[in-house]
Amino acid sequence: MAALSGGGPDTPSVVVGPVNLAARIDEALAVQALAFGLSEDEIEVRRHIVYRHLMYPGARALGALTESGRLVGFVYGMPNDRTHWWSTVVEPYLRRTGTDSWLDDSFVITELHVHPGYQGRGIGRSLITTITDDADQPRSILSAIDIESPARGLYRTLGYQDLARQVVFPSAPSPYAVMGAPLPLLREK
């Protein structure tokens, strides 16, 4: 468990540690909806996806909890499998850039979201470094909306680099970038 400062005298501290994401799915999806701007229909679709992902071998989840137990952030991931839907979508893009070998022996960050009111406090950094520190794979991959954003900036500071850009997922309104980093992730100096 990693304890993080609340960022000020009026904000609670946050602890990052293992969480039963299936049992807290409503809280997690509420955070994701706020952080990512999801509609009610999209939330219901994501609910089924998260449950399915959590059944995959090696899937793990961490949560960021306030002192009162409120979930304000979460991450989950698993060892990548080329037969999973995400891999089948990104593989042609990675093949074009000569980086499709990243789909093998990688830990994929499936979702990482922090409540907007808690962003900028190191919670996302703590979630992603803590979950990847326990990975058996030598590297990590993820996808992020292909714009210059605080999330992409965070990933770069951790050692993630673009493997493919302008990746189009069916039904996603914006293209994504696939990023990869060797493990362990870089730490701030």
Give a quick summary of the entry:
With 189 residues, the protein is α+β, with helices and mostly antiparallel strands. Helices cover 31% and strands 29% of the residues.
Description:
With 189 residues, this protein is of the alpha+beta class. The protein has 5 helices and 8 strands. The protein has helices at 25-36, 40-54, 85-96, 123-133, 150-157, and strands at residues 2-4, 14-18, 60-66, 71-79, 106-114, 139-145, 161-167, 176-182. Strand 3 (60-66) and strand 4 form a beta hairpin. The radius of gyration is 16 Å and the shape is globular. The mean pLDDT is 93.
Helix content: 25-40%
* Biggest sheet details: 8 strands, mixed
Q: Regions with pLDDT < 50 over 5+ consecutive residues?
A: none
Structural class, from secondary structure content?
Answer: alpha+beta
The H-and-E topology, N to C, reads as EEHHEEHEHEHEE
Question: How many strands?
Answer: 8
Q: Report the mean per-residue pLDDT as an integer.
A: 93
Q: First CA to last CA: what distance?
A: 21 Å
Which shape, going by the Cα principal axes? globular
Please compute the radius of gyration using only Cα atoms.
16 Å
Strand content: 25-35%
Strand order in space, largest sheet: 1-2-3-4-5-6-8-7
Helices, by number, come to 5
